[in-house]
């Protein structure tokens, strides 16, 4: 009886110790979550302040450039006047010679100061943009950590009394949950980055450009204002293109209704319309047929990413997409005449190619990238079709 009593007492002590450890763990994790959240909030507030400062800097740059152009024009006229006075020195009075020299010198000094100011403003702008990029990464990392800690807290708080049973499958469930959360967070981060770098930035430029149009109309007249308006329309059209591209990125509805080939035709036609002169052509080889949805989505995303890289980053004039439908596989070739790159060079932040490699592995396909700087890029994709 005594030995049994000690055994039970020992189990009781072990449970209490385990509960105490878990309690302290939850408290520590929860405190860490609050601290990380606070860091993220502080960084976000500083980010908003820097965004406002960056907007002001950009306005100042535009104003300095406008002033510099005027000074440049006046300085050229003053130098021309000074050259004329120097060449016909005897035909002008001493006062006229002195005035011509002082005017040219004064304008040259003002132009020099203006250029120095523009240089300093541009350096400040570049510094702010770098800091903002670092802050975005810090905010994203903090949000990701808070999300992961929330998952951990959920497991720890779920049922302490049944912690033994929970420990058996916690690792598997947590890994699965983390993978889903990480995929969601990566997609949200990518979409946020694209909206920030694309439509959001363009709309900010549109607002600045609208103010410039008013100034041009007042200072230079109707014709110059019309020219600015035409440029303004191009900028708005480009912003609309980015919005439509992002909509396509989220999920083209035609993919579910019509299939891969018709969706690619429509997608390439839409991209060509808003790609500022890039010509996109599509050719299908073999009999058109519907594929398993997972293959259609993956192939569309792979081709879409390759086309976007060619149009947005490679500065291509022409992009050709060929798709061969076979009974056992699908082959796709995306070729552009852009600036090319070195496939062996690893660039920081090159998420597009990394995402393509991960997606091709998920469907057991193969991808080959051939490119050289200045020689364009050719991407070959092969995906085996399993029934």
UniProtKB/TrEMBL annotation:
Keywords of the record: ATP-binding, Coiled coil, Cytoplasm, Hydrolase, Kinase, Nucleotide-binding, Protein phosphatase, Transferase, Two-component regulatory system
What are its E.C. numbers?
2.7.13.3, 3.1.3.-
- Output the PROSITE patterns linked to this UniProt entry: HIS_KIN (PS50109)
Where, subcellularly, is it found?
A: Cytoplasm
Q: Which InterPro entries match?
A: DegS, HATPase_C_sf, HATPase_dom, His_kinase_dom, Sensor_HK_TwoCompSys, Sig_transdc_His_kin_sub3_dim/P, Sig_transdc_His_kinase_DegS
* Broad class of where this protein is predominantly found: cytoplasm
Q: Which reaction does it catalyse?
A: ATP + protein L-histidine = ADP + protein N-phospho-L-histidine
Coiled coil start-end: 111-145
Location of the Histidine kinase domain: 190-387
Record-level Gene Ontology MF annotations: kinase activity
This molecule's function is given as:
Member of the two-component regulatory system DegS/DegU, which plays an important role in the transition growth phase.
Q: What is this protein called?
A: Signal transduction histidine-protein kinase/phosphatase DegS
* Biological source species: Jeotgalibacillus haloalkalitolerans
